[in-house]
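To the wet lab folks,

You asked to see what we're planning to order before we commit. Fair enough. Below is the target structure as tokens, and below that is the sequence we designed to fit it. If anything looks off to you, flag it before the synthesis order goes out.
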């Protein structure tokens, strides 16, 4: 089983952040790949939520990419501290969208007239398409 690369030291992180700010795409990729362990750690908290781990990892990685793109080192915190909040925010936002997904249903009232009802049920697109 392949493991995640080791996290960056504080000195390495500062160097890669400086290079990333100057536009170095390789430094950006290193920052993202070296912090994937953090995404996996955050996703563990949401594994019992009923959503696929792969989906949560994908959404968490998007949050990590946003964190790397918007991080400001001059505020005095480390990237990991900022990234945890961005990853959790991305996961919770996506979970809210999954929760709001509804299936339209046509029902007949007492007069025999059909009408559509949109119940709010917790179902993801993945479950919707696998059931069909």
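Sequence we intend to order:
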């Amino acid at each position: 089983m392949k493991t995640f690369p080791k996290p960056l030291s504080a000195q390495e992180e500062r160097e890669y952040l400086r290079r990333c700010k100057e536009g170095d795409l390789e430094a950006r990729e290193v920052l993202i790949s070296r912090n994937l362990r953090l995404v996996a750690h955050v996703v563990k908290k949401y594994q019992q939520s009923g959503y696929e781990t792969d989906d949560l990892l994908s959404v968490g990685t998007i949050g990590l990419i946003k964190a790397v793109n918007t991080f400001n080192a001059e505020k005095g915190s480390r990237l990991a501290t900022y990234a945890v909040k961005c990853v959790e925010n991305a996961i919770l936002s996506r979970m809210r969208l999954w929760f709001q997904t509804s299936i339209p249903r046509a029902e007949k009232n007492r007069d025999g007239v059909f009408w559509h009802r949109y119940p709010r049920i917790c179902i993801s697109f993945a479950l919707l398409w696998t059931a069909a």
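Structural context that might help your review: The longest strand covers residues 105-108. Helices lie at 10-21, 25-34, 36-44, 53-70, 79-100, 125-131.

Thanks,
Computational group
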